[in-house]
Protein backbone atom coordinates (compact mmCIF):
# COMPACT_ATOMS: atom_id res chain seq x y z
CA UNK A 1 0.00 0.00 0.00
CA UNK A 2 1.29 3.43 -0.94
CA UNK A 3 1.41 6.31 1.48
CA UNK A 4 0.93 9.76 0.01
CA UNK A 5 0.93 12.80 2.22
CA UNK A 6 2.00 16.43 2.16
CA UNK A 7 5.62 17.08 3.12
CA UNK A 8 7.77 20.15 3.62
CA UNK A 9 11.54 19.57 3.87
CA UNK A 10 13.15 22.24 6.03
CA UNK A 11 16.94 22.62 5.79
CA UNK A 12 18.06 23.94 9.18
CA UNK A 13 21.38 25.23 7.78
CA UNK A 14 19.84 27.69 5.31
CA UNK A 15 19.00 30.46 7.84
CA UNK A 16 22.65 30.61 8.97
CA UNK A 17 23.60 31.28 5.34
CA UNK A 18 20.95 34.01 5.03
CA UNK A 19 18.68 31.85 2.87
CA UNK A 20 15.26 30.31 3.23
CA UNK A 21 13.85 27.17 1.69
CA UNK A 22 10.33 26.38 0.44
CA UNK A 23 7.64 26.92 3.04
CA UNK A 24 4.73 25.06 1.47
CA UNK A 25 3.71 21.43 1.74
CA UNK A 26 3.84 19.33 -1.44
CA UNK A 27 2.36 15.93 -2.15
CA UNK A 28 4.99 13.26 -1.69
CA UNK A 29 5.36 9.50 -1.60
CA UNK A 30 6.94 7.95 1.50
CA UNK A 31 8.45 4.49 1.85
CA UNK A 32 9.83 3.02 5.07
CA UNK A 33 12.03 -0.09 4.75
CA UNK A 34 14.61 -2.02 6.76
CA UNK A 35 17.83 -3.14 5.07
CA UNK A 36 19.88 -6.26 5.76
CA UNK A 37 21.74 -4.46 8.54
CA UNK A 38 18.43 -3.87 10.34
CA UNK A 39 18.64 -0.12 9.66
CA UNK A 40 15.33 1.60 9.02
CA UNK A 41 15.38 4.00 6.08
CA UNK A 42 12.82 6.53 4.87
CA UNK A 43 12.57 7.31 1.14
CA UNK A 44 10.84 10.46 -0.05
CA UNK A 45 9.79 11.14 -3.66
CA UNK A 46 7.85 14.03 -5.17
CA UNK A 47 6.41 14.71 -8.62
CA UNK A 48 9.40 16.93 -9.43
CA UNK A 49 12.01 14.76 -7.75
CA UNK A 50 11.02 11.21 -8.69
CA UNK A 51 14.43 9.83 -7.74
CA UNK A 52 13.69 11.09 -4.26
CA UNK A 53 15.80 11.36 -1.14
CA UNK A 54 16.72 8.72 1.39
CA UNK A 55 17.05 9.32 5.12
CA UNK A 56 18.52 6.99 7.71
CA UNK A 57 16.05 6.66 10.58
CA UNK A 58 17.78 4.30 13.02
CA UNK A 59 19.88 6.28 15.55
CA UNK A 60 19.51 9.38 13.38
CA UNK A 61 16.40 11.02 14.83
CA UNK A 62 17.29 14.02 16.96
CA UNK A 63 13.73 14.92 17.93
CA UNK A 64 10.14 13.98 17.15
CA UNK A 65 7.38 16.60 17.25
CA UNK A 66 4.17 14.61 17.68
CA UNK A 67 1.98 16.97 19.70
CA UNK A 68 -0.49 17.35 16.82
CA UNK A 69 -0.35 13.80 15.48
CA UNK A 70 -4.06 13.44 16.34
CA UNK A 71 -4.65 16.18 13.75
CA UNK A 72 -2.58 14.41 11.11
CA UNK A 73 0.62 16.43 11.65
CA UNK A 74 4.07 15.05 12.47
CA UNK A 75 7.61 16.46 12.26
CA UNK A 76 10.81 14.37 12.22
CA UNK A 77 14.13 16.12 12.93
CA UNK A 78 17.18 14.28 11.53
CA UNK A 79 20.76 14.70 12.71
CA UNK A 80 22.26 14.03 9.27
CA UNK A 81 21.40 15.74 7.06
CA UNK A 82 20.14 18.68 9.13
CA UNK A 83 16.61 18.39 7.80
CA UNK A 84 13.18 18.61 9.39
CA UNK A 85 10.45 16.62 7.64
CA UNK A 86 7.07 18.25 8.30
CA UNK A 87 4.38 15.69 7.41
CA UNK A 88 0.65 16.28 7.04
CA UNK A 89 -1.80 13.54 6.12
CA UNK A 90 -4.31 11.05 7.45
CA UNK A 91 -4.15 10.52 11.20
CA UNK A 92 -3.79 6.72 10.93
CA UNK A 93 -0.79 7.12 8.60
CA UNK A 94 0.92 9.64 10.85
CA UNK A 95 0.39 7.36 13.85
CA UNK A 96 1.85 4.42 11.89
CA UNK A 97 4.94 6.41 10.89
CA UNK A 98 5.38 7.49 14.51
CA UNK A 99 5.17 3.90 15.71
CA UNK A 100 7.75 2.75 13.14
CA UNK A 101 10.18 5.55 13.96
CA UNK A 102 9.90 4.73 17.66
CA UNK A 103 10.58 1.05 16.94
CA UNK A 104 7.14 -0.11 18.03
CA UNK A 105 6.38 -2.08 14.81
CA UNK A 106 7.55 -5.67 14.90
CA UNK A 107 7.58 -6.25 11.10
CA UNK A 108 10.54 -3.96 10.57
CA UNK A 109 12.53 -5.55 13.39
CA UNK A 110 12.37 -8.85 11.51
CA UNK A 111 13.92 -7.24 8.44
CA UNK A 112 10.73 -7.22 6.34
CA UNK A 113 9.03 -4.40 4.49
CA UNK A 114 6.37 -2.53 6.43
CA UNK A 115 3.09 -3.66 4.76
CA UNK A 116 1.27 -0.37 5.31
CA UNK A 117 4.02 1.89 4.05
CA UNK A 118 5.53 -0.35 1.41
CA UNK A 119 5.97 1.07 -2.08
CA UNK A 120 7.75 -0.50 -5.02
CA UNK A 121 7.52 2.49 -7.36
CA UNK A 122 8.37 6.14 -7.23
CA UNK A 123 4.97 7.18 -8.52
CA UNK A 124 3.47 10.05 -6.53
CA UNK A 125 -0.32 9.93 -6.43
CA UNK A 126 -1.82 13.35 -5.70
CA UNK A 127 -5.20 12.82 -4.02
CA UNK A 128 -8.19 14.53 -5.62
CA UNK A 129 -9.39 17.56 -3.67
CA UNK A 130 -11.94 19.07 -6.10
CA UNK A 131 -14.80 17.38 -7.93
CA UNK A 132 -17.58 18.82 -10.09
CA UNK A 133 -20.55 16.69 -11.19
CA UNK A 134 -22.84 18.41 -13.69
CA UNK A 135 -24.53 15.42 -15.33
CA UNK A 136 -26.31 12.35 -14.00
CA UNK A 137 -23.97 10.05 -15.91
CA UNK A 138 -20.97 11.33 -13.92
CA UNK A 139 -22.58 10.71 -10.53
CA UNK A 140 -20.78 7.89 -8.63
CA UNK A 141 -23.25 5.11 -7.84
CA UNK A 142 -21.08 2.05 -7.36
CA UNK A 143 -17.94 3.92 -6.31
CA UNK A 144 -17.27 6.21 -3.36
CA UNK A 145 -16.45 9.89 -3.26
CA UNK A 146 -12.72 10.50 -2.65
CA UNK A 147 -12.23 11.07 1.07
CA UNK A 148 -9.68 13.80 0.35
CA UNK A 149 -12.22 16.14 -1.29
CA UNK A 150 -12.23 19.71 0.01
CA UNK A 151 -14.60 21.07 -2.66
CA UNK A 152 -17.57 19.23 -4.19
CA UNK A 153 -20.16 20.54 -6.64
CA UNK A 154 -23.19 18.45 -7.62
CA UNK A 155 -25.46 20.74 -9.60
CA UNK A 156 -28.32 20.44 -12.08
CA UNK A 157 -28.76 16.66 -11.99
CA UNK A 158 -32.23 16.52 -10.36
CA UNK A 159 -30.85 15.01 -7.15
CA UNK A 160 -33.85 14.36 -4.87
CA UNK A 161 -32.12 13.27 -1.67
CA UNK A 162 -29.07 14.39 0.22
CA UNK A 163 -26.54 11.59 -0.31
CA UNK A 164 -25.45 10.44 3.15
CA UNK A 165 -22.09 9.36 1.75
CA UNK A 166 -21.22 13.05 1.73
CA UNK A 167 -21.25 13.05 5.53
CA UNK A 168 -18.05 10.96 5.52
CA UNK A 169 -16.06 13.61 3.62
CA UNK A 170 -14.37 14.97 6.73
CA UNK A 171 -12.05 17.31 4.78
CA UNK A 172 -14.90 18.97 2.85
CA UNK A 173 -14.85 22.79 3.02
CA UNK A 174 -17.12 23.74 0.09
CA UNK A 175 -20.32 21.86 -0.77
CA UNK A 176 -22.48 23.02 -3.69
CA UNK A 177 -25.77 21.15 -4.20
CA UNK A 178 -27.56 23.95 -6.05
CA UNK A 179 -30.18 23.43 -8.77
CA UNK A 180 -31.46 20.06 -7.64
CA UNK A 181 -34.69 18.77 -6.06
CA UNK A 182 -33.55 18.18 -2.48
CA UNK A 183 -36.35 18.55 0.08
CA UNK A 184 -34.73 17.52 3.38
CA UNK A 185 -31.30 18.04 4.91
CA UNK A 186 -30.03 15.36 7.32
CA UNK A 187 -29.79 16.19 11.02
CA UNK A 188 -26.20 14.94 11.01
CA UNK A 189 -25.02 17.52 8.46
CA UNK A 190 -23.10 19.19 11.29
CA UNK A 191 -20.69 16.22 11.13
CA UNK A 192 -19.00 18.06 8.25
CA UNK A 193 -16.83 19.80 10.80
CA UNK A 194 -14.61 21.67 8.28
CA UNK A 195 -17.45 22.94 6.10
CA UNK A 196 -17.10 26.67 5.31
CA UNK A 197 -19.44 27.20 2.35
CA UNK A 198 -22.81 25.54 1.78
CA UNK A 199 -24.70 26.32 -1.45
CA UNK A 200 -28.26 24.96 -1.59
CA UNK A 201 -30.02 27.43 -3.89
CA UNK A 202 -32.78 26.30 -6.28
CA UNK A 203 -33.93 23.27 -4.33
CA UNK A 204 -37.17 22.47 -2.47
CA UNK A 205 -36.00 22.64 1.14
CA UNK A 206 -38.72 23.60 3.62
CA UNK A 207 -36.93 23.36 6.97
CA UNK A 208 -33.41 23.90 8.24
CA UNK A 209 -32.43 21.14 10.69
CA UNK A 210 -31.79 22.51 14.17
CA UNK A 211 -28.51 20.57 14.37
CA UNK A 212 -27.08 22.47 11.42
CA UNK A 213 -26.55 25.48 13.63
CA UNK A 214 -23.73 23.61 15.35
CA UNK A 215 -21.67 24.21 12.19
CA UNK A 216 -19.85 27.23 13.59
CA UNK A 217 -17.21 27.19 10.83
CA UNK A 218 -19.69 27.97 8.04
CA UNK A 219 -19.05 31.47 6.64
CA UNK A 220 -21.36 31.35 3.60
CA UNK A 221 -24.88 29.88 3.49
CA UNK A 222 -26.88 30.22 0.27
CA UNK A 223 -30.35 28.73 0.61
CA UNK A 224 -32.16 31.06 -1.80
CA UNK A 225 -34.93 29.86 -4.13
CA UNK A 226 -36.30 27.21 -1.78
CA UNK A 227 -39.53 26.70 0.22
CA UNK A 228 -38.40 27.93 3.65
CA UNK A 229 -41.20 29.29 5.80
CA UNK A 230 -39.02 30.40 8.68
CA UNK A 231 -35.46 30.70 9.92
CA UNK A 232 -34.92 29.04 13.32
CA UNK A 233 -33.82 31.37 16.12
CA UNK A 234 -30.88 29.06 16.81
CA UNK A 235 -29.28 30.31 13.56
CA UNK A 236 -27.42 32.66 15.91
CA UNK A 237 -25.07 29.84 16.83
CA UNK A 238 -23.53 29.82 13.35
CA UNK A 239 -21.21 32.44 14.79
CA UNK A 240 -18.83 32.59 11.81
CA UNK A 241 -21.50 33.37 9.21
CA UNK A 242 -20.53 36.26 6.90
CA UNK A 243 -22.84 35.75 3.91
CA UNK A 244 -26.49 34.68 4.28
CA UNK A 245 -28.70 34.43 1.18
CA UNK A 246 -32.40 33.76 1.77
CA UNK A 247 -33.95 35.25 -1.39
CA UNK A 248 -37.09 33.80 -3.00
CA UNK A 249 -38.46 31.77 -0.10
CA UNK A 250 -41.68 32.05 1.94
CA UNK A 251 -40.13 33.56 5.05
CA UNK A 252 -42.53 35.75 7.04
CA UNK A 253 -40.17 37.06 9.70
CA UNK A 254 -36.57 36.97 10.82
CA UNK A 255 -35.62 35.76 14.31
CA UNK A 256 -34.50 38.46 16.75
CA UNK A 257 -31.36 36.41 17.39
CA UNK A 258 -30.01 37.35 13.96
CA UNK A 259 -28.31 40.25 15.72
CA UNK A 260 -25.89 37.76 17.30
CA UNK A 261 -24.31 37.07 13.92
CA UNK A 262 -21.58 39.61 14.62
CA UNK A 263 -19.53 38.68 11.55
CA UNK A 264 -22.44 38.90 9.10
CA UNK A 265 -21.65 41.28 6.24
CA UNK A 266 -24.07 40.35 3.44
CA UNK A 267 -27.76 39.57 3.95
CA UNK A 268 -30.19 39.08 1.05
CA UNK A 269 -33.85 38.44 1.88
CA UNK A 270 -35.57 39.67 -1.30
CA UNK A 271 -38.85 38.22 -2.58
CA UNK A 272 -40.11 36.77 0.69
CA UNK A 273 -43.20 37.51 2.81
CA UNK A 274 -41.50 39.63 5.47
CA UNK A 275 -43.69 42.40 6.90
CA UNK A 276 -41.49 43.73 9.71
CA UNK A 277 -37.94 43.36 10.94
CA UNK A 278 -37.03 42.45 14.55
CA UNK A 279 -35.87 45.18 16.93
CA UNK A 280 -32.41 43.61 17.25
CA UNK A 281 -31.81 44.26 13.54
CA UNK A 282 -30.54 47.75 14.35
CA UNK A 283 -27.40 46.32 16.01
CA UNK A 284 -26.10 44.69 12.80
CA UNK A 285 -23.19 46.11 10.82
CA UNK A 286 -23.50 45.04 7.17
CA UNK A 287 -21.82 45.83 3.88
CA UNK A 288 -24.91 45.00 1.81
CA UNK A 289 -28.56 44.17 2.40
CA UNK A 290 -31.28 43.33 -0.13
CA UNK A 291 -34.93 43.56 1.01
CA UNK A 292 -36.55 44.08 -2.42
CA UNK A 293 -39.95 42.49 -3.04
CA UNK A 294 -41.24 42.08 0.52
CA UNK A 295 -44.77 43.22 1.57
CA UNK A 296 -43.65 45.50 4.38
CA UNK A 297 -46.50 46.85 6.51
CA UNK A 298 -47.24 50.54 6.66
CA UNK A 299 -46.73 51.74 10.21
CA UNK A 300 -49.67 53.72 11.62
CA UNK A 301 -48.06 56.85 12.98
CA UNK A 302 -50.48 57.79 15.73
CA UNK A 303 -52.54 55.55 17.96
CA UNK A 304 -54.06 56.88 21.14
CA UNK A 305 -53.31 54.68 24.14
CA UNK A 306 -54.15 54.96 27.79
CA UNK A 307 -51.16 54.91 30.17
CA UNK A 308 -52.92 52.11 32.07
CA UNK A 309 -52.50 49.90 29.02
CA UNK A 310 -48.73 50.22 29.21
CA UNK A 311 -48.18 47.49 31.77
CA UNK A 312 -44.87 45.70 31.89
CA UNK A 313 -44.79 41.92 31.93
CA UNK A 314 -43.49 40.27 35.06
CA UNK A 315 -40.23 38.51 34.23
CA UNK A 316 -40.10 34.78 34.91
CA UNK A 317 -37.41 33.19 37.06
CA UNK A 318 -35.84 31.80 33.90
CA UNK A 319 -35.72 35.28 32.37
CA UNK A 320 -34.16 36.75 35.51
CA UNK A 321 -31.49 34.01 35.51
CA UNK A 322 -30.73 34.59 31.84
CA UNK A 323 -30.53 38.35 32.30
CA UNK A 324 -28.10 38.01 35.21
CA UNK A 325 -25.91 35.62 33.24
CA UNK A 326 -25.67 38.09 30.36
CA UNK A 327 -25.36 41.20 32.50
CA UNK A 328 -22.43 39.89 34.53
CA UNK A 329 -20.86 38.12 31.50
CA UNK A 330 -20.73 34.81 33.34
CA UNK A 331 -18.84 32.05 31.57
CA UNK A 332 -20.62 28.72 31.53
CA UNK A 333 -20.60 25.27 29.94
CA UNK A 334 -23.32 22.72 29.29
CA UNK A 335 -22.48 21.17 32.65
CA UNK A 336 -23.06 24.42 34.56
CA UNK A 337 -26.56 25.36 33.37
CA UNK A 338 -29.70 23.45 32.35
CA UNK A 339 -30.03 22.91 28.62
CA UNK A 340 -33.31 24.86 28.54
CA UNK A 341 -31.64 27.92 30.07
CA UNK A 342 -28.73 27.75 27.61
CA UNK A 343 -31.17 27.64 24.70
CA UNK A 344 -33.10 30.53 26.25
CA UNK A 345 -29.89 32.56 26.55
CA UNK A 346 -29.17 32.12 22.85
CA UNK A 347 -32.66 32.76 21.55
CA UNK A 348 -34.66 35.05 23.83
CA UNK A 349 -32.67 38.18 24.56
CA UNK A 350 -33.54 41.53 22.95
CA UNK A 351 -32.22 45.03 23.46
CA UNK A 352 -34.24 48.22 23.92
CA UNK A 353 -33.07 51.13 21.68
CA UNK A 354 -31.78 52.77 24.86
CA UNK A 355 -29.39 49.84 25.27
CA UNK A 356 -31.07 48.07 28.16
CA UNK A 357 -31.42 44.29 27.97
CA UNK A 358 -34.93 42.86 27.74
CA UNK A 359 -35.64 39.17 28.25
CA UNK A 360 -39.26 38.10 28.30
CA UNK A 361 -40.28 41.52 29.59
CA UNK A 362 -40.75 45.03 28.24
CA UNK A 363 -43.34 46.65 25.98
CA UNK A 364 -44.03 45.63 22.40
CA UNK A 365 -44.17 48.53 19.95
CA UNK A 366 -44.00 49.37 16.27
CA UNK A 367 -41.27 51.49 14.76
CA UNK A 368 -39.23 52.08 11.65
CA UNK A 369 -35.60 51.65 10.74
CA UNK A 370 -33.51 53.34 8.09
CA UNK A 371 -31.49 50.47 6.66
CA UNK A 372 -28.57 52.78 5.91
CA UNK A 373 -28.02 52.77 9.68
CA UNK A 374 -26.98 49.12 9.51
CA UNK A 375 -25.64 48.75 5.96
CA UNK A 376 -23.50 50.73 3.53
CA UNK A 377 -25.44 49.38 0.54
CA UNK A 378 -29.22 48.80 0.40
CA UNK A 379 -31.36 47.22 -2.35
CA UNK A 380 -35.11 47.74 -2.06
CA UNK A 381 -36.93 49.95 0.41
CA UNK A 382 -34.69 52.10 2.56
CA UNK A 383 -37.05 52.69 5.49
CA UNK A 384 -38.92 49.61 6.70
CA UNK A 385 -41.14 48.78 9.69
CA UNK A 386 -39.56 47.22 12.76
CA UNK A 387 -40.96 45.47 15.81
CA UNK A 388 -39.45 46.75 19.03
CA UNK A 389 -39.32 45.73 22.67
CA UNK A 390 -39.05 48.76 24.94
CA UNK A 391 -37.88 48.44 28.52
CA UNK A 392 -40.28 50.96 30.14
CA UNK A 393 -43.04 53.51 29.38
CA UNK A 394 -40.46 56.32 29.11
CA UNK A 395 -38.73 54.53 26.23
CA UNK A 396 -42.13 53.83 24.74
CA UNK A 397 -42.86 57.55 24.56
CA UNK A 398 -39.38 58.18 23.20
CA UNK A 399 -39.07 55.54 20.50
CA UNK A 400 -42.48 54.16 19.55
CA UNK A 401 -44.41 55.62 16.63
CA UNK A 402 -47.41 56.14 18.88
CA UNK A 403 -48.81 58.98 20.94
CA UNK A 404 -49.66 58.21 24.55
CA UNK A 405 -52.67 60.16 25.76
TrEMBL record:
Keywords assigned by UniProt, alphabetized: Leucine-rich repeat, Nucleus, Repeat
Keyword presence, Lyase: no
Sequence ranges assigned to domain PIF1/LRR1 pleckstrin homology in this UniProt record: 1-103
Entry keyword Protein biosynthesis: no
Domain of life the protein comes from: Eukaryota
Gene3D superfamilies given in the database record: Ribonuclease Inhibitor
PROSITE patterns: LRR
A Pfam entry, by short name: LRR_8
GO cellular component: cytoplasm
Official protein name in the record: PIF1/LRR1 pleckstrin homology domain-containing protein
Amino acid sequence: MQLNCKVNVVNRLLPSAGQSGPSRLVWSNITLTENKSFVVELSLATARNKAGMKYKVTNNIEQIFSKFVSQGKLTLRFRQPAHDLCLSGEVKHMEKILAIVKGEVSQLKKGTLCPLLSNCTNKVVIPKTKLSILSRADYPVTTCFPETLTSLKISGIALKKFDRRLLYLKALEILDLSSNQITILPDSIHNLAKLKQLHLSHNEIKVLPSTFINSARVTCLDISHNQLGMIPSCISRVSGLQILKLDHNKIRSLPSTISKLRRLRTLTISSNEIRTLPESFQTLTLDHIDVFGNPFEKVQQEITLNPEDLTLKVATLRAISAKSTIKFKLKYTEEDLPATLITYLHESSTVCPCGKLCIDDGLAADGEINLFRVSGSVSGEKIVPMKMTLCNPACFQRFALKVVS
